Amino acid sequence: MSTAQLVPYVEDLSVTKAYERAVIQLLSTKPFFAKLVMTMKKDFNFTKYPTAGVSVNSTGICLHINKDFWLGITASERVAILEHEVLHIIHNHTTRFKTQNINDHKLANIACDIAINQYINGLPTKMMIKSPDGSFREGHPVTYEMLKTQFPQAQPKQSSEYYFQFLKEEQNKMKGQGDASEGMETVDDHGEWDESDLTEEQKERFVKSHVKAVAQSCSAEELKDIDKTIIDALYKSDVNWKQILRQFFANSEEIFTERTRKKRNRRYGISQAGIKNECKLKLAVACDTSGSMSDEELNIIFAEISRMYDETRMVIHVIEADSVIRDCYEYKKGMKIEAKGRSGTAYNPAINKAEELGVDGMIYMGDLDSADAPIRPKFSILWAAFRKESNPFPFGKFMKVS
What we know:
Mean pLDDT: 83
Shape: elongated
Number of strands: 13
Number of domains: 2
Structural class: alpha/beta
Oligomer: single chain
Number of helices: 12
């Protein structure tokens, strides 16, 4: 009895037709992803690398597909590859590490793939990978499960920066005795990320604007399967909250010390616990959720709160208010915020609430069109304005958000 020879899966389709079928299938499951793919230019004669990739330049976002690779994987795997490339764009991975003085590009690329592959089902398990010497070999795409098998302490659903830092620390622990990323490969090629006629800052602004425009063209139903934190990230500004808040609280910063074995003692080394300084400041962030604030502006506010939390060590109390207090809570990492209110506008209720909380300072984010005249509180206040060019109130510092 003879044994049939195993051959690669090859569907009798042109590369264009196979792509169109994958997009149609993606439209039925993740329409936002499909719409974003459809705005990309297509390069179906991609032979520079053996799989696929995306690039960003002044003419737009381009999807590169190696025809042999594309026709050698299953229909469901093609859909997974499209999801993979879209997630690279949504997370702005083409510029993610370029502005952070990162020199370990292999580790950075692997970290990007670990961060997004957790959200994708059906990725190819084997594919051809380009080696540093230019030859091709079979590789296995990196997944979080692969990382966790080797490093059980690795946390799921984290950013590419988290996985980069995690792998870097594990690499340092090995002290040259091994490679923390051994056996880990990217599912596509990231070489095209370095080739653009735009600066990294221009690419980041272009991608953010492009993806946000596609998201705004989608209905709430079409966005329901997308992690809200991904959409929120599109609305984050380039405001350096760490620097602004440091200046804002320059005269009121309280520090306490705590002894910890996690930090080396400067004088006595590891034999004694070190000292860790922590900021005790409590910040109130009031969100104007009145009807005059657009949904996009509220998305920006919520994204900025997340950014403040990530960039500082402050306790942040969020106060949602229109003409009355709608909600008040301490913000925690990854918290998803839904606006409550959408009625008239009064700023004193939120200011009074902040005084009850005993905060050290307050940021009021809104259009600064209030029916009441805000009363100066005992603490410092920063007005973060939408549409206003100057401070309409006789006290407080002023900054324009959008």
